Amino acid sequence: MRIAANGLAATIRELAPIHVLSVDEWPKVFDTERGQSLPGRRHRFVYTAEGHTVCVDRWLWVIGGGVLEATASYALEDHTALKPLFEYLVDQLAVVDHGSTYELQLANIGLVSGEEPYPDAYASQQRNTPVEGLKQIAAGQQYSEAGILLTSAAVDLFQSLTGRGGLGRFELSGSGREVAELVAAGMVTEQGKLTEMGGAFLAPCSNSVGRLRAEAHRNGAESVAEVWIGEDLALISADPSFYGSSLPGEGKRELRLLKSTDAALVLVSWAGIGPAWTMQHDPVVIDGATFNARVAGVAVPVPNNTEAVTRLWQAPWTEWSITHLEANAGFRWLHAGEAGHYSVIPADGGIRLDAQPSSLVWDAVVRVVHTALTGTELDLSTDVPSAWLHARQEPARG
Predict the structure, then answer these.
(1) Whole-prediction pTM value?
(2) What letter does residue 188 receive in the DSSP assignment?
(3) Residue 76 contacts by C-beta under 8 Å, 6 or more apart in sequence?
(4) Which of 10, 29, 154, 257 sits a CA distance of 20 to 30 A from 230?
């Protein structure tokens, strides 16, 4: 726990800004003849280097007084192909004939690991082994609005220019405030004509190969992010995030132009996805009205009195989903703060909540962006565990 936590803290300082996606337990048997499993961690994070978005999956194990590390780095656009390959290679790692190194030499570990991290008491109790607290990592990753901020009315007016070169006379006279916003942002001229920058922002809308829609709900408020995926660039039009500095309904709408593959990282940041220990309990099945009331902030009784479910019930709830509109398929989750992430699946006339690691949420969002970009289909049986991937049943919204 100490080595993993302090190693990640050092990485955050050295590579800042980075987005930590997950911290996962990763026990491994290195010597099949002995058959003893050694505890380990996998850290997954993303950072930007020389204009490229780099994914890093790093594994750590303690063997005696030493540390074994395996690190895989790859471009975000290669995630779908390389992530499972690196997991396979790590699974093949073997360390044999190291005899007494199976004995954990705590006196030596202190020389390289720094201070003991603050533990997550409940997650440690569930696992019967100490695990580090992750709350501060997630709290330090607020969504950052790096695009152009405009009022919703100005965004709507700007996007109405898709497929045409400028605003009409009546639009100029009737939308003076919004036109002034667009002029100040460099999107249109004072005569209402698209600028070069404005044309670049609208290009993904004109030549879209796929569209995504993300929706989030908490305490009666809604926030929406829409994505137009082009072959090279994507346009994101997003309400303020529940995990940013301004709350939905209080701020302006963000327009961001970026590489199409980078849309996955922006969406998970917007949705507040970060490390949390997966709760260990049976799936929770409740009726839809109870689920919707709890998301809306209404006090409803805990469905059973187990400590794990009570911890889930007391956490802040944000329900969110992402849909590939052309395929009318996607994913739906519950973000429950320190209680972690849950799949939200229709079951038996109600809702089933299954605890899921944030690592799988990240993989699924990358997959949705990949399918929108390439035109491939979401494979419900092989892409990600079928227990938490689902096709959306409600009609797609344009």
Answers:
(1) 0.88
(2) B
(3) 46, 53, 54, 55, 261, 262, 264, 265, 366
(4) 154
